[in-house]
Design brief:
This protein is α/β, with parallel strands linked by helices. The chain is built from 12 helices and 14 strands. Helix 3 (116-129) crosses helix 12 (330-346) and helix 5 (191-203) runs parallel beside helix 6. Bound molecules: adenosine-5'-triphosphate and magnesium ion.
């Protein structure tokens, strides 16, 4: 006579896919029923990986059928159904809000070198200028440039509760990937390490009370950026583009990336829109208006256009953003206008 123990013993030969342990010791087997050589087993798994489930079912049925006296084997693997896609109202369903931080906004760009970090820094200082409590998180794993642009060379300190306290300058608190590596060492990080570090930027950093935390994402809209967007509980995304890039449709990729993770798009900033010569002539080096046209096509807000100004580049190199050194300058004014628009929509 077959017993429940016979079945369980046979199932101990089945390993959980990817592990050396067997499915019985993992506690998967919930119920065994035996009648006239027909065996039915029900199991529960917590992971919903369809391939693992298929494999567990097939191997278990095979192991049971191999027992003498078994004519039919049926294994039912119960698994939690895939979570329902988050609707725009419950984007927080699968993410943890960060206590003390009211809004988290990512700044992204379709490709590198369009001035994303420059915009992040000036928007952070601009929002601070307007009275908001602001943090800035530099997630650029390839080349964290924000500490330089913010004129910061001190690293975070550790407080009594063993949390990192972000250094601040111009009233903006900053954490950067750049704080975690030595000097010019190139960063060769694997995906899981990056994700873990980003998570620690929330769990292990004493941000205090912030109205808004701006996140400078790495350039591009690939898998790395997408999983960062999933790791960070974002309230909204801003896309920085040059006119030329916008007209080439790169902005659409940025929009698609935010949409995939249900992050509302706050709008597009067109950077390097045009250049005004000392004699007052306007030169549209990368074309002009691509950002606005694409924003209209994609039905997202257009937040503003930032011309090419020597002062903007110098501010970045000196570590004093133009919004701080010359808020009344035309460049400072443009960034402040965008910051105001963000504040109106967010805070
Ligand atoms: N509006 C502007 N006027 C003048 N210079 C600018 C402007 N925007 C950006 N720059 C300059 O262009 C260079 C690239 O800008 P930035 O580093 O902000 O780009 P990025 O998109 O963050 O680049 P990466 O992809 O490398 O992170 C910097 O030297 C910056 O000072
Ligand atoms: Mg950058």
């Amino acid at each position: 006579m077959l017993t429940e123990d016979d079945i369980k013993n046979a199932l101990k030969a089945v390993r959980y896919p990817g592990y050396s342990r067997d499915i019985v010791s993992f506690g998967l087997v919930k119920q065994v029923a035996i009648k006239d050589g027909a065996v039915s087993v029900s199991m529960n798994v917590t992971s919903a990986n369809p391939e693992a489930i298929r494999q567990i079912k097939a191997e278990s049925e095979q192991a049971i059928k191999a027992l003498p006296g078994v004519s039919v084997a049926y294994v039912d693997v119960q698994h939690p159904s895939a979570p329902a896609p988050a609707s725009p109202q419950n984007v927080w369903a699968q993410q943890n809000r960060v206590p003390g931080i009211r809004r988290i906004v990512a700044v992204a760009s379709g490709k590198g070198g369009v001035g994303k970090s420059t915009v992040s820094v000036n928007l952070a200082c601009g929002l601070q200028h307007l009275g908001a409590r602001v943090g800035l998180l530099d997630c650029d794993i390839y080349g964290p440039s924000i500490p330089l642009m913010m004129g910061m060379n001190q690293k975070p300190t550790i407080n009594d509760s063993e949390k990192m306290v972000p250094p601040s300058n111009y009233g903006v608190k900053l954490m950067s990937m750049g704080f975690l590596v030595e000097g010019d060492q190139p960063i060769i990080w694997r995906g899981p390490m990056i994700m873990k570090t980003i998570q620690q930027f929330f769990s292990a950093v004493e941000w205090g009370e912030l109205d808004v935390l701006l996140v400078d994402l790495p350039p591009g809209t690939g898998d790395a950026q997408l999983s960062l967007c999933q790791t960070v509980p974002l309230d909204g995304g801003v896309i920085v583009t040059t006119p030329q890039e916008a007209s080439l449709g790169v902005v659409r990729k940025g929009i698609a990336m935010f949409q995939k993770v249900n992050v509302p798009i706050l709008g597009i900033v067109e950077n390097m829109s045009y250049y005004t010569t000392p004699s007052g002539d306007r030169v549209e080096i990368f074309g002009h208006g691509g950002g606005q046209a694409e924003a209209a096509r994609q039905k997202v807000a257009f937040l503003g256009e930032v011309p090419l100004f020597t002062e903007v580049r110098e501010g970045g190199d000196r570590g004093v953003p133009v919004v701080v050194s010359a808020p009344e300058h035309a460049a400072g004014q443009v960034f402040l206008k965008v910051a105001e628009e963000l504040r109106r929509n967010l805070l």
